[in-house]
Amino acid sequence: MEVAQPPGKADKMKYIAQVDGLDFPVEILDEHHVRFGEEILEFDLAAVSGQPLYSLIVNNESFEGYVYPDEGRWQVLLLGRSYSVNIEDEREKRLRRSENGNMVPDHEFTLKAPMPGLAIAVLVSEGQLIEKGQILAILESMKMQNELRSPFTGTVVRLRIKAGESVQQKQVLLSIIPNVSVPS
């Protein structure tokens, strides 16, 4: 049996959005309002004709972005940048932290093309050490250049593209393993 709560007293849905390794608190207030950090935003989100393309309106400003699931996370291409996003509620995050102890991935990360396009630059090579946030490749799609960045510090273990090659959406571009420092 479900017990109704008095108006205005219902639990709001609280989440942590991890975007390229940075945490952002998000609270869903109602169908068209969220609290993002300290700011309350009015929003609307709609899929565009069954594609991974979404129309997003935030405080009366319109955006389009590609969003698709990728190995338990979301890949988001917005305003010419690609973001790796993980969303979990506060309870899930606390449980994961208590189980793992740290936030560095313990497995290989595969970077996939967020949309079809042309690899205009590949800025890394196999075996190269890379830093979190470093630009790995630049894809051009729909006359926009999109910088694909590393979500963590690591090493490029497989490189599957070259500058000048066409890529398809979700095509594997490269793989990275995290650099984990071992305590002495």
Summarize it.
The chain is built from 1 helix and 16 strands.
Q: What is the residue-averaged pLDDT?
A: 81
Give a count of the beta strands, DSSP E runs of length 2 or more.
16
Helical amount among residues, as a percent range?
under 10%
Shape: globular
**H/E element order:** EEEEEEEEHEEEEEEEE
Q: Under the CATH scheme, which architecture of the largest domain would be assigned?
A: 2-Layer Sandwich
CATH class call of the largest domain: Alpha Beta
State the end-to-end CA separation.
Answer: 54 Å
Query: How does the helix and strand content classify structurally?
Result: mainly beta
- Proportion of residues in extended strands: over 45%
Tell me the major beta sheet: 8 strands, antiparallel, barrel
* Main β-sheet, spatial strand arrangement: 1-2-3-4-5-6-7-8
Number of helices: 1
Question: If you had to describe this structure to a student in words, what would you say it looks like?
Answer:
By secondary structure, this protein is mostly beta strands. The chain folds into two domains: 12-103, Glycoprotein, Type 4 Pilin, CATH 3.30.700; 105-184, OB fold (Dihydrolipoamide Acetyltransferase, E2P), CATH 2.40.50.100. It is 6% helix and 54% strand. It has one helix and 16 strands. An eight-stranded antiparallel beta barrel has the order 1-2-3-4-5-6-7-8. Strand 1 and strand 2 form a beta hairpin. The longest helix is centred in the middle third of the chain and has 11 residues, at 90-100. Mean pLDDT is 81; it is low at 1-10.
